[in-house]
């Protein structure tokens, strides 16, 4: 019997990215519920108004949410809101804005990125100072902002104290701080603290609030944490991130963040990553390369083993030169998925 395309798709389980997972049923239900009647377009709707209340509950009374289509758009808008045309951003070499956004900050945002190598994806005040210099020199792009990622692209997590140290350091130098929160919920689940503990309360100026990696169909939000939104209303339209039917973006974000769905989903993904780590770390020939503090596991496999595992499970090479791979868990990853991957790794290495 030939399998139908639906059966083939349903059978495939990816560990390449948490973007591979479908939308959470509660999010889909929220979209369906919002699909009733006529409401005003471009954000003048009751769903977007309610989203402002939800965001204020997480980040404080001064927080303002600007729903956008995707994470790259959120990051570019966030950085543009912090900088004049001559401004530059200090970030880690591994930052998503540097290696995964196809030059969007530079080409679309007109922003110079000043990158710093880090062993674990995390910046420190000392690392920032490698590029935070040259103010007043017209020959150098002016370092006026810093961007950090929570959790980082290497799966590591900043503590609230580490974020506060960075914020105090950069603010003392007249710079501002952006936090790329594509996996913000995973960080909160790992740390056991509210979202504002390592954003608003730690001195962050603007946040890219993740949604797609945690169960949304599509959509993120820029969350401005100060009184002045620095022109985000205009920047969003200018950068083609203004949704006419914004109620559908806002309804998804409400479904995720109004209750505890954001935390439940992230905590589950993190737990599956811990199960995966525990399963592979005892396999001879497998070497884990980073701490597992969120929903990603990084490991080096012997030559040829990754390709054998990929016959059953899709995932990415992180560093082909060393054999390092990345496995990402999602809100819908099951224990059976993890056990199947562990068995495939064990067989491939053997």
UniProtKB/TrEMBL annotation:
Cofactor(s) the record lists: pyridoxal 5'-phosphate
Residues in Aromatic amino acid beta-eliminating lyase/threonine aldolase domain copies: 15-298
Keyword terms: Pyridoxal phosphate
Keyword Thylakoid attached: no
Signal in keyword set: no
Top-level taxonomic group: Bacteria
Family recorded in the similarity comment: Belongs to the threonine aldolase family.
Protein name per Swiss-Prot or TrEMBL: Threonine aldolase
Taxonomic source organism: Zhihengliuella salsuginis
